[in-house]
Each structure stands twice: as structure tokens, then as C-alpha cells.
Design brief:
With about 230 residues, the chain is mostly helical. It has two domains: about 150 residues, Orthogonal Bundle (Ribonuclease iii, N-terminal Endonuclease Domain, Chain A); about 70 residues, 2-Layer Sandwich (Double Stranded RNA Binding Domain), CATH 3.30.160.20. It is built from eleven helices and three strands. Strands 1-2-3 form a three-stranded antiparallel β-sheet, with helices on one face. It is globular, with a radius of gyration of 20 Å.
Length: about 230
């Protein structure tokens, strides 16, 4: 599929026509493709912008639809809506696996099916729409992509809190988290590796773009182990 065809397909999926078509093309250009083409970084900057815009718009919808929720509840609900898996699902619904442009290595490894690549591409598309049409263009798009999930969102139980409650109840100890690796690479989905300990025993490790995400992943694994042992 040519670049122009991919852009037109994206516009049809979004129900939005770009005034600046190059923004759409950039949003679909994974860094591996852009690097092979001209040494550039592809959709990374749009992904960064789209991540922030998506957080803002989703937060606004949750704030309006859940007037009785506290800050922590809003934060956890937003995190559940804009996590990697959720955004990859939205990307698939828009047909992005067929549109994202990948370098040779990513094509060979079926990168178009990877949640991380699709989630990043979705964020880049949001960033592109924001630059092209502002929040007034992004808001209806987000509402359509997320649908009823924005108004019927529930507050997921925080894995760190749940594991701490279990450790207090069963072991009379408080879990501690130790960062064992930091790649130092911004926007790396596996930048941080964190180990969770109770009484100097490791209960699991997790990786994530932020320390918080890695700690939650470690707590989720620890919870699964605790439940299987009980």
C-alpha cells in the first residue's frame, strides 16, 4: 500500500480529513521504517504528544462522568483505559496493523501485531489529529474509539495495594520494591525492571516504561504467586 493510500485509509477510519497530510503519514511511520528511509525518528515525537493529549482528554471525560470519584480513583481508571493493551485494541479497531509502516526487521518479526507498536502508533495518530485540528477534533475521536468505557469506567484495584494487604495479612510484613535495571532510554516500554521483596525473598519482577508501571507489573506477578500458593 502506498503512503497516500495508507493516509486515505486512515482518514476513512478516523472519519477525519487532515489539512496537513504529512502529519498522518508521519503518524504511521514507525521509527524502524523512518530510520531506514532517511535516518529520522518517525512517529516518536507525535507519540509523545499524543500520549499527553490522550491523558488530558480521557481525564476530562472521566472527570465529567464520575463527579463523586476521588483523585486516586480517577487516576486508576484513566490508567486502565490508556494502558498498552487497551490502546492496541483501539489501534486494531481502526485498522492500524495494515497501515503502520515498519522497517525490515520489524516486518520480519510481525511487528504490526505487537501491542507496543500499535499502542504507540495510536498515540501518534492522536498527536497528529491534535496538531491538525486541536482538541475539538480529538475529543469526538476519543469518544468514538473508547465508547461507553468512558462513562461506565470502573476503578480497578491497584495491584500494589492488593499485594501489600496480602503480605500484611499472611506474612505480617510490608513489601519493598527495588529497581534492578534502568536502560536510560526515554519512552522505552521496558526501561525499568523492578523486583518486589517480602522478608528479603523475591516474589516477582516487572518491567515498564516508568518505575510505577514496573512496580505494578511486579506486584501483579507476586499476587498471582501468592494466590497459587494459598
Amino acid at each position: 500500500m502506498s503512503e497516500d493510500d495508507a493516509r486515505r485509509e486512515l482518514e476513512r477510519a478516523l472519519g477525519y480529513r487532515f489539512r496537513e497530510p504529512s502529519l498522518a503519514s508521519t503518524a504511521l511511520a514507525h521509527p524502524s521504517y523512518a530510520h531506514e528511509l532517511d535516518g529520522s525518528r518517525g512517529n516518536e515525537r507525535l507519540e509523545f504528544l499524543g500520549d499527553a493529549v490522550l491523558d488530558l482528554v480521557v481525564a476530562g471525560y472521566l472527570y465529567a462522568s464520575q463527579p463523586d470519584w476521588r483523585e486516586g480513583q480517577l487516576t486508576r481508571a484513566r490508567a486502565a483505559l490508556v494502558n498498552k493493551s487497551s490502546l492496541a485494541d483501539r489501534a486494531r479497531a481502526l485498522g492500524l496493523p495494515a497501515l503502520v509502516r515498519l522497517g525490515k526487521t520489524e516486518r520480519r518479526s510481525e511487528g504490526a501485531n505487537k501491542d507496543s507498536i500499535l499502542a504507540n502508533c495510536f498515540e501518534a495518530v492522536i498527536g497528529a489529529v491534535y496538531l491538525d485540528g486541536g482538541l475539538s477534533a480529538v475529543e469526538p475521536l476519543v469518544a468514538r474509539c473508547f465508547g461507553d468505557a468512558l462513562v461506565s469506567a470502573s476503578v480497578p484495584r491497584d495491584a500494589k495495594t492488593a499485594f501489600q494487604e496480602w503480605a500484611h495479612s499472611e506474612l505480617k510484613q510490608t513489601p519493598t520494591y527495588e529497581t534492578t535495571h534502568d536502560s536510560g532510554i526515554e519512552n522505552d516500554d521496558e526501561r525499568f525492571t523492578v523486583e518486589v521483596y517480602v522478608e528479603q525473598r523475591s516474589w516477582g519482577h516487572g518491567v515498564g516504561r516508568t518505575k510505577r508501571a514496573a512496580e505494578v507489573a511486579a506486584a501483579e506477578l507476586a499476587l498471582a504467586r501468592a494466590r497459587s500458593a494459598s
